[in-house]
Write a structure and sequence with these properties.
The protein has 9 helices and 9 strands. The protein is an alpha+beta fold. The chain has 3 domains: about 70 residues, Irregular (H-NS DNA Binding Protein), CATH 4.10.430; about 50 residues; about 130 residues, 2-Layer Sandwich (Double Stranded RNA Binding Domain). A 4-stranded antiparallel β-sheet has the order 3-4-5-9. Strands 6-7-8 form a 3-stranded antiparallel β-sheet. A two-stranded parallel ribbon has the order 1-2. The termini are far apart.
């Protein structure tokens, strides 16, 4: 590849089909059972990966800034922009567009802020993470919002009693916080949200599933609550299932408030405005 890349300076050439280098390397790896180390030149997993925001911006504007050889010339699928906490808007925009999402500038600003929060929790943000993030942003944008979750704190263990504290932002940017105990984290979270918002509702269904892979995967929680025989559903996603549960329950409460005309609901007496 040194000859192929600088043949104009070396004045020599080969008849090697360089596009077979990468697939051949992978074939040998599968046959022998020996993995290729990530930092292996040319064919290693990290050979054409860029995590730094400066590098991502440079590659997007002019690939040869950081890549003297074209990854396609060795049969590599292409350059990979690793999205993480060092990534900038250019890298996020490129990956988002590749996934087929089009956003207005103001929406992009909000997504970028959410992305940075997620990137602080995960070493690498994958395509499935981004799809989950975009789905969450789209859901939030389309839902009626009376209360916004501002903070969640939970304490528990192998005992029967769990304690949860939540802080929400209500109408007029008024901030309310309250705590509750329950038989497990979800029960405590739901009761704390009830007290902070002043909207009682019975939890009738709780479902959680992993959206992405790994120990730091994003979990999506779907909750159904009941009040006066009516069912309201809420969704929430986060790398912390407890936080996702709080988001989902508050989402259901917001739907309940919007449908039942309770926008001027007064929080419970035990709730303390900050």
């Amino acid at each position: 590849m040194a000859i192929e890349t600088r043949k104009d300076h070396l004045n020599v050439a080969t008849n090697i089909d360089t596009t077979q280098i990468y697939p051949t390397s992978r074939l040998v790896s599968r046959i022998t059972g020996m993995s290729i180390q990530p930092n292996k030149s040319i064919v290693g997993e990290n050979a054409f990966r860029h995590a730094s925001g400066i590098h991502q911006d440079g590659v997007l504007k002019e690939r040869t800034t950081y890549e003297l050889m074209d990854p396609v010339s060795i049969g590599w699928p292409g350059t990979t922009l690793v999205l993480g906490k060092l990534s900038g808007r250019a890298g996020l925009r490129s990956r988002r567009e590749a996934l087929g999402y089009a956003l207005a500038r103001e929406d992009m600003d909000q997504v970028f802020e959410e992305f940075k929060v997620l990137a602080d929790k995960k070493q690498e943000v994958t395509d499935r993470d981004l799809e989950a993030l975009m789905a969450e942003e789209k859901r939030v944008a389309s839902e009626p919002i009376t209360y916004i979750l501002d903070h969640v704190q939970f304490s528990g263990g192998d005992h029967d009693i769990a304690t949860a504290t939540v802080r929400v932002i209500g109408p007029g940017q008024e901030v309310y916080s309250d705590a509750a105990t329950g038989n497990g984290p979800v029960d405590a979270i739901c009761k704390a949200v009830q007290r902070a918002t002043g909207v009682p509702a019975e939890l009738v269904d709780f479902n959680v599933q992993s959206v992405t892979e790994g120990q730091d995967s994003i979990g999506e929680v779907v909750i159904r609550v009941e009040q006066d025989g009516k069912i309201f559903m809420g969704r929430g996603a986060d790398t912390d299932v407890i936080v996702a549960s709080a988001k989902a329950y508050l989402s259901a409460v917001n739907r309940l408030i919007a449908q039942e005309g309770l926008a001027n609901v007064v929080p419970a007496p035990l709730t303390t405005p900050d």
